[in-house]
């Protein structure tokens, strides 16, 4: 039986290593409430949201195990050789590839973590340019969301953080997530 999925997207950067990671987690619409409940259950008292960079090692392990137990479908694009002056270009290349991956996997609804008005407009301009070139389906809906209002945006934050850490040499948490769950891994330079 087919279940529609929505993809939630976030990034992680490690400028000192020249690394840019864009992660998408596909969440079946019929399991979204379950995913949200698991994520809310990971919050500490008075913690408004999960944010990978704010968590300590012990919490990161618990969070990674909880995410792995959901068996999410992951799409990841890694930009290597990132220079601070080329950050926007690398993001555009990675986002173009990620949206193509998602469209190829029949994802028609994408929610990206909002950045700021200018950054979100750049992303929207790219989406519109891809549609104009027929490189993106016209029926793919892309929107920007607030992680304080949408718990499912915590998932790609966690995944991108884990992947960035693995690319920097510590793949202990990545081993929990990878395997059949990841549909494709691409290097954009």
TrEMBL record:
<keyword id="KW-0472">Membrane</keyword>
<protein>
    <recommendedName>
        <fullName>DUF3800 domain-containing protein</fullName>
    </recommendedName>
</protein>
<keyword id="KW-1133">Transmembrane helix</keyword>
<keyword id="KW-0812">Transmembrane</keyword>
<feature type="transmembrane region" description="Helical">
    <location>
        <begin position="62"/>
        <end position="83"/>
    </location>
</feature>
